[in-house]
Amino acid sequence: MTAPTPPFRDPRLPFAKRVDDLMSRLTLDEKTALLHQFAPAVERLGIAAFRTGQEALHGVAWMGPATVFPQAVGLGATWNEELVRRVGEAVAAEARAMRARDERVGLNVWSPTVNLLRHPLWGRNEEGYSEDPRLTSAIATAYTRGLRGDHPAYWRTAPVLKHWLAHNNETDRDTSSSSVRPRVLHEYDLRAFRETVEAGAVAGVMPAYNLVNGRPNHLSPYLARHLRTWTEDELLVCSDAGAPSNLVDSEHYFDTHEEATAAALRAGVDSFTDHGTDSSKIVARLRGALEQGLLTEADVDAAVRRQLSVRFRLGEFDPEHDPYAGPIDFDTPEHRALAREAAEQAVVLLKNDGVLPLAPHTRVAVVGLLADECKLDWYSGTLLHRSTPLEGLYERFGAERVSFAEGVDRVRLRTAEGSFLHVLPSDGSPAEALGTEGALDPALLAGRTDLPPLTTDAVGTELALIDWGEGVLTLRAPDGRYLSVAEDGFVRASADQPGGWVVQETFRLEPHASGHLLRHTGTGRLVQVAADGVKVAADDADAAVFETVVAERGEDAVARAASGADVVVVVAGNDPHINGRETEDRTTLRLPAHQERLLRAARAANPATVLALVSAYPYAVDAATLPAVLWTAHGGQAAGTALARVLAGDVCPAGRLPQTWYTDDADLPGLLDYDVIGGRQTYLYFEGTPLFPFGHGLSYASFGYADLAARVRDGSVSVSFTVTNTGEVTADEVAQLYVRAQDPSVPRPRRELLAHRRLTLAPGASDRVSFEVPLSAFAFWDVAHGRWRLEPGPYALLVGASSEDVRLSTTVVLDGEPAAPRPVGTRGLAAADFDEQSGTEIVDRTKTVGDAVTAVTGRTGELLYRDCDFGTGVRGVTVSVAGSGSVEVALHGGPAVAVLSPDAPTAGPYAYVDLESAFTAQGVHDLRVRLRGALRLAHVGFSG
């Protein structure tokens, strides 16, 4: 007889019942083993192995050749959800196609990144979409819908959002804590995640490395309290790589890994990414936690159920019913065209005094360190096709009308003995293909050792030196290979590009006596010349002293090319692997000095100089002296063609800035200041004059706005207006709707994006743009009562082409809930629910839940709570505190009425005691609390 089909194999049953059946058949050991990223097969049940995590930020990454689309920040600059949905669809299709021939390619994709671009010096700026939560959510929702597919039951891929939560710094990223007050939490950081999850195309999230309010994100109580209430789908929470071990090893939050792993699982982490493909350590920790009673089988079941739910949705158990399981074309003409379309739509024209578009027969000099580059980043795939700005301009204008100067400094390095560094010729053999582990994690790839190391001779080799800023430089041989250091310590010309988790292609020249020492940044060691070749020295005493002999300065080559052209295009920007990347924040908005001197040389030789910035983040540049400035993120495989077509006017630019471009470093808040409200950060609150504002972008056409109408309906505000192309070319316009509360009771944004639409209009054509904005979009988080509140009163609706280019405005008056004082006489005050603060940070009240407030080390903390209602009167105050120090409580404007301090330090940061003192107040007053010392304040209560 044929064995009956088990229910979990029956496609007629709902997924939930099938998961129930499969769970009932798994042993505890089998279930525990599934909780590592690399879940093993369960052969007795015919269950295949499964891997969570496939990088797919702007194309399938790390698994070989794939279509490479613009960086995420570039997709954000398109302001075009439909385009981004199609990009997501193409990426998912290629993931499926690649998996069909390589089962290591995963379908649980770790993308997109919805961290808000709060601070432009963040090293991973390239991975996010925008500083605005609504724009971020709109683009992320579009991308996840493309990744998911449109089948009601089965998913093409299962996207996981990164990185939960309030994560915008690489500096001390695994030990720093983001202090996030409740209003910022709800109105800013949670919003981008929430609106994307609620859209229904998200399979899970990945917690970030950092801590929020003193508690590691991998223990975030918000996973249960917020995330899992936003959808009925089972959401899979995947840890970031190595983060479970960080809970003990770097954060010292727990004493043992069993405690830490159990706490993360109970908080909501379902899949542990740790120790690469070796699952034994995580499984041993989980088993130890079970044996110690730190976990129950029900805890394990909850996590396994979420993983299995995703696997069923991906069609793993129903290959014959999976609509995405068939053969899929790869690298199609449609995907290539889409990559070019995305790159074109991502270009932002920042300034244009009429030099653009270039006339058909213009003689163009294209110069700069990125003029003949198509740079990839850490989360890029391998290029199938490649287009640089130089190649794009050759193709568009003809090689005879385009001149080129890279602008590198051409140097030879002479030793103290008089010989020069020499690069031996290679046989031209390519590097070995990626190994299994290297394909899954390029951090594991090693440098080439099959090429000869550098030597010295009497003539030497002329090297191309590029200073990328901060004194970090690369050296490139004449054949295009970069000097690099492999595991054996020898210096070779072996790398196609700088790259890797630890970049081995960067050096520093350090002044020493009459010359320089050459330090390799990857190893931190100095370079020596030894009998067997040039290598890094084990002992600094063996280091060689070099003299830099300059054959040509980069600015001289740039000036020659510029002087013979009608127009100069200076292509400047960053290498995504150097000075601003994952693990490393930038230190300044300025262009590196090397590129600034190239720009000055071009401008001096030819006033018709266009600056094209190709970068992962904003720069502060002197735009006033330039007739035209453009910006695009690293645009993937079609970047050069796209830029050339925009410069030539074949494509009318319509990208818009997804974040504020500040004028100077002095405009920036501290990197670790996450209080966008108190710190007046992003376009929402910034009160200075930006270099270029949020939403800014020019066109070769012009547009008129007219006939604004707004009407309040039940539950929403209807807004409509007309946009007309008043120019002479067909072009896209991005119409933007903002709101400003005109009479707020608390600080509200200067203006806040409500909606936008990218539309294409022929010359003279008009379109009526309509938005239906829910009243909830006008609400704010009321800390006095711990909930959203729509404040009644007038709201200005602002329509235009950017956050500062407002063309139309009107006012609507909304009904809402009037402000009410805090009922502190009956409820007291949660310390973190302040209205204003200075000198404080929010910390964890316990290791699992709750917030407290403490003074920043070396400062006196001040907390202000407005409109506190003491009713008919109170006579006492009670504070819940831990640590040592004092709390002063006063009515605003008056002296301290109560000063409370524990007699001795409490037993630890979580050992709270209640201190009481006399305190008299009645009616409604503002309350001020002052904190001194290492004291944590959790709650203030009052008694009558």
Overall strand count:
48
Proportion of residues in extended strands: 25-35%
Share of helix among residues?
10-25%
Low-confidence stretches: 433-438
Measured distance between first and last alpha carbons? 80 Å
Largest sheet: 8 strands, antiparallel
Number of H- or I-type helical stretches = 19
Strand pairing plus helix content: what structural class? alpha+beta
- Global outline: globular
Quaternary structure: single chain
The average pLDDT value, as a whole number, equals 96
Structure description:
- The chain is of the alpha+beta class and 944 residues long.
- 21% of the residues lie in helices and 28% in strands.
- A hairpin with a 2-residue loop joins strand 21 (507-512) and strand 22 (515-520).
- Helix 5 runs parallel beside helix 6, helix 9 packs across helix 10 and helix 12 (333-345) crosses helix 17 (639-648).
- The protein is globular and about 90 Å long.
- The model is unreliable at 433-438 (pLDDT under 50).
